Amino acid sequence: MVNDTVLVRGGRIPVPFGLRNNEHSTWVRALTLTDTNVQQRLGVSAAYSGGQLRAEVMGIAATTLVDTTESGYSAFAEYAFTTRTSLGVSSLIAGRPQLGATARQAHGAFFRWAPVQPLVVLAEADVLAWTTPGVADRVGYAALVQGDWEPIQGVHVMLTGESAHDGRQRGPSFGAWLSAAWYFFSHFELRLDNVLRRVDATQPLSYALVLQLHLFL
Predict the structure, then answer these.
(1) CA dist 19 to 54, 134, 183, Å?
(2) pTM (predicted TM-score)
(3) pLDDT for the residue 131
(4) What is the rounded distance in angstroms from the CA atom of residue 161 to the CA atom of residue 179?
(5) Judging by DSSP bridges, how do beta strands 119-132 and 103-116 pair with one another?
(6) pLDDT digits over 31-76, tens only?
């Protein structure tokens, strides 16, 4: 039997929102500002885990001592319907406390599915909005779907598709990733990403080849 647990944290911590995927520059992370590496925020969070449900809510504090003056909240909840399938929802509202300043919102859902043992399918879709009091200045979206195949333990091959719109650009953005990762030692990852993107209808296709070595705690 799994006991219910509650963890309360304070300080500079990752924002609880959506998939915590390692593709840190995907648009679902970049446009929501929820990358676990470089977009942690100062605040207090309470996380719950019990049986098939896990959830976390965070109050984001505005401060001039670090790289953000935003305040607000972020939260998610995820329910495991089976050992192979789970569905979650996320919500975030943050902005500068000055009167009339623009606030940003992101609300969406994410999904995990393991149809067979070596394969996991991940997906996330978020509606985005940038608002001044009572007025929606811009509305957009960000979405991602990924297949993660582990042919041998510790080696992953991933194919990712993504799309986004920030409410200003001419036409949607599209991207495709072909990635390989090797977790060769505890808390170490060697990773290669091939990224093909088109930012909007006025821009040509761009290609990036990125080799990374991650050490994480």
Answers:
(1) 13, 30, 19
(2) 0.90
(3) 84
(4) 11
(5) antiparallel
(6) 999 998 888 888 999 999 998 999 999 999 887 665 567 889 999 9
Could you tell me how far CA 207 lies from the centroid of its own chain?
22
String of DSSP letters for the chain: -PPPEEEEEEEEE----S---S-TTSHHHHTTT--TTT--EEEEEEEEEETTEEEEEEEEPP-SSSS---EEEEEEEEEESSSSEEEEEEEEEEE--STT--EEEEEEEEEEEEEETTEEEEEEEEEEEEEETTEEEEEEEEEEEEEEEEEETTEEEEEEEEEEE-SSSSS-EEEEEEEEEEEEETTEEEEEEEEEEE-STTS--EEEEEEEEEE--
Confidence of residue 3 (pLDDT cuts 50, 70, 90): confident
> Could you confirm whether domain 5-215 is CATH 2.40.160.10?
yes
Residue 1 binned pLDDT confidence (cut-offs 50, 70, 90): very low
- 41 bridge partner residues: 13
C-beta separation of 124 from 143 below 8 A: yes
Q: Which two tokens stand for residue 7?
A: 């963890």
- Closest to 63 measured CA to CA, from 30, 96, 91, 36: 96
